[in-house]
Amino acid sequence: MSAAAVGNTIRSAVVKGSKSWPHQSPALTKVLDNTSKLELSPDHDMPMGSWSSDQIRDATTSSVMLTWAPGKVRHNTPIITHGEGVYVFDDKGNKFLDWTSQAVCSNIGYTIPESVVEATTKQIKELSFIYGGLGITEVRARLSKLMSDILPGDLQGMVFPSSGSEANEAAIMMARRHTGKYKVINWYRSYHGGTTNSQQATGDFRRWFGGDHVPGFVKAFHPFPLFWDLAGENEEERTQMALNMLEEQILNEGPDTVAMVQFESVIGGGGVLVPPPGYMQGVRAMCDKYNIVMHCDEVMVGFGRTGQLFGFQNYEGVIPDIVTAAKGITAGTLPLSMTACRKHIMDTFEEKPLGWGSTYQGHPVAMACAYENVKYLIKNDVIGHVQRLAPKFESEMKRVAENHPSIKQYRSIGLFGCFDAHNPDGSNPQLQHTAIDKAFVAYKKSYTENGLLGLLRPPHMHVAPPLIISEEELMDGFERQDKALYALDEALGF
Fold it and tell me: What gap in Å lies between CA 417 and CA 306, rounded to an integer?
C-alpha cells in the first residue's frame, strides 16, 4: 500500500470525540525493603530512668525532631530527669527554677496532687478510651458541667480537643457555621496555633511558615503597636482611636463577611500585652452591633494566670461568645483543651454537626486529669494565691527593670510579666523572627547559670512561674533574674 493510501486510511479513521491517548504510568524502580524487624533491643527492656546520658543523646541525635526551633538545637537542650515543686533537675544534678512554667502551662508545678494522679490512673484502668461519637462517659459529662458552672453567663457548650491549636480550629469552624460568614479578624503579634487555620490566624512570624496563603483571615493592629503610637492626648482617646481603626476595618471588609473577632485576652508570646481600659468592652459592643462572634483565646492565660479564672474577666462586663483554653486545664500533665460557647451558638448545632472533630476529642483519661486539676485549683484557692502574690510580683518586676539599663519597660498582670529590652540608642535589639542575637545568647547563658529554666522570645523576656510558687521562691527567682540581666546590660553595650 502506498504512503498516500496509508494516510488516507488513518484519516478516514479519525472521528469526533474525546478519547484518551495510550499511556504507561512509570514502574517502580527504586524498590526498597519495607519489612521491619519486630524485635526489641535490650535497651528497651531497661527500666525508665535507667538510660545513660549518652544513650539519650544518641537516640535524640538519630531520631528526635524539634518543631519551633532548628533541629541542631536539640544537641544542647538539657536532659531533664525529674521535677519537684517549682523545680526541674537535669542529668548532671543541676536544679532549675521553672521561671516560665515551661510554655506557660505547668501551673501547679511538678508535685502533682494525689487526687489528680489517682483519678487519671483510675480512668486508665476502667475505660482508657471511647471515641466521642460512640459513647458518653461520666467524666465527659462531669467536666462539661463543671466548666459550665464556673464560667460566667451562658457559656455552657463544651468541646474538649487535645491542644490549644485544635481548640481554636474548632472555634473558627463553630463561628463560620453559626454565622454563615467566613472572615476572621486577629491581632498582629498574636499566636493561635500551628495547624492550618490557627496558624493563619496567628499574627507573628510563625504564620509565614505555612506560606501565609489561607484565605479568610484579616489582621488588625493591637492597641499597643510595636513602632508607632496611636493619636490621642490621653489613654482614653488612644483607646477610642484603636476602636475606630478596628471598626473601619470591619466596614471595609464588609460586616456581612466577618464571622468572628478572635483575640487573645492578653497577648502572651508577643509580650504580655494587656488591652487598655475600655478596649475589650468596645470590641464586645462592636461585635454585638455587626452580629460578629467574639472569641477570647485563653490558651495561655486561662485557669488563673492573670489572677482571674480567665483573662477576659479582667474586663468588666465582657462575656465572649466563644472561649478557648488549654495548657492550664491540666497544668500540662496531659494534652487537653477546651472550646466553650454560649447557648445560642450551642443551639445552632442541635440539628447540624459542628464540622470539626478529631479522634481524641473528649479523651476520657485526659478529661479525668483535667477534672481533678480544675477542682484542685478551686478547692485550694490557687487563684486567690495568685491575687495575693501579684502586688509583690509587680513590685519585683519594677525593681528589676529599674536596676538594668537594658530594660526599656515591663508589664505584668497576676503572675504574668514581661521585660522589653532596648539598645543604648533606644532602638529594638532584635525582632522575634530573626535568629537569636549574640547579646541574648550571652543573657541566656547567664540565665541558665543562675539556675533558671524558661522560654526566651527576644526582645521580650517573660516571667510566668508556676501559680503555686511561694513568696520565698518568687523572691529567689527575681534575684536570679536580676543577676542574669547584668550579662544583657554588658552585651548590649550599656
Answer: 10
Q: Is the dihedral of CA 85, 68, 393, 378 positive or negative?
A: negative
- Cross-strand bridge partners of residue 461: 419
Query: In whole angstroms, what is the distance from residue 143 CA to residue 330 CA?
Result: 12
pTM: 0.93
Burial (CB < 10 A; 0-12, 13-18, 19+), residue 150, is: middle
Amino acid sitting at position 65 = M
Residue pair 365/124 in contact (Cβ under 8 Å)? The answer is yes
3-state SS, 202-220, equals CCCHHHHHHCCCCCCEEEE
The full DSSP string for 452-493 is EE---BTTEEEE---TT--HHHHHHHHHHHHHHHHHHHHHTT
Tell me the three-class secondary structure of 249-318, residue by residue.
HHHHHCHHHEEEEEEECCECCCCCECCCCCHHHHHHHHHHHHCCEEEEECCCCCCCCCCCCCHHHHCCCC
pLDDT, tens digit, 9 for 90 and up, residues 304-363: 999 999 999 999 999 999 999 999 999 999 999 999 999 999 999 999 999 999 999 999
DSSP 90: E
Comparing C-alpha atoms, which of 386, 243, 251 is closest to residue 311?
386
The cell for 417 is: 510579666
